[in-house]
C-alpha cells in the first residue's frame, strides 16, 4: 500500500436524486480496525439496493416502483428516517457499493499479515452471531456501513473471501450481491431437478444469476424479459423466453411450460405478481427478492389458501452462501455477465444506465 492518506470516492450526502452523489478526491482512507482488512478496490458493481437506499424507496410511504425518472429524482413522499432496507435511518455521508472485488492492502489487529496481497471479493452481509436472521444485527455493506465506491474500503476479515481465478476485477464485481441474492431466492423455494421455474426480471443481475443457478439444479427455465434480450438468455440457459410486455402473461407462461409451473422467482413485483401466482400449480412456490415495478399489489387470499401455495421473501442471505458461490466461480460453473463499465467519477451516469434497464447482466464501476 502507498503512503497516501486521501483517496477518491463517491459520497452519498443524503436521500434524494442523483445530485446526492458527490465525487471527491480528498476523502480519508479508512484504517482497518481489529478483525478487519483494508481492500484496495479494483471494481464495484451496481445493484438495486444502491438506488433504493439513495431514494429512500424502502420507506413505507413510497408505493411506486423505480423508474428512470423516479430513480433519478427521488421520491417526495419518502420517509428519510426509514430509508434503509430494514426501515431504519441511514447515517450520512455514506459510501455505497456492496459488490467489491480487489486486493487486501493492510490488516487490522488480530488478522494475519499473510492476507496482504490476497485477491478477494466481499460477502456484503455482515451478520451477527446467534440468530443470523435478526435484522438488528444484520449489517449490509454499503448501506449500514461504508462500501466500495472508493479506492479503498474496510470490511470484517471473514467477509473478505479469497478467490483464485482468471476473471478480471470488473467480472468478479458482478457476483457478490446478485448471485448471493439469487441463490437465496432459489433456495427458499427448494427447487428440485426436473421442476419448471419461471423467472421475472430475468435479464438483470439477479435474474441472469438465477438462470444459471436453476440450470445447475437441473430445472426447466422460463424467463420473462424484453424480446430483444431473448437470444442472450437462451444461450445462458433459459428454455423459453416470454416478452415482458405480453398482456396475458399467466397464459403465456402456461403455454411455454406445457401446464402450470412449480416455482416462480420474482424481482419485479407490480402487475407481474398476479400472473406469476396464477401460473403456479397446486402447492407451487413463489419467492421474491425485489419489487422494482411496484411494491404494493392487490392479492386475493383464495389464491394462497385453496392452491396450497408457499410465498416467501428472500432478503437476508444465510451464512456460508457467498463461500459456496466462490467455489462455483473458481470451478468455472458460473458465468459473469458484465454489461458495461464506468469510471468512479461517472457513478451517477452508471446509475442512470442501470435504471434504464437496457442491459443484460451487471453494470460495474472500475476504480
Automatic annotation (TrEMBL):
Keywords: NADP. The keyword Transit peptide does not apply. SMART domains: PKS_ER (SM00829). This is Alcohol dehydrogenase family protein. Residues 16-365 form the Enoyl reductase (ER) domain. It comes from the Bacteria. It comes from Mesorhizobium newzealandense.
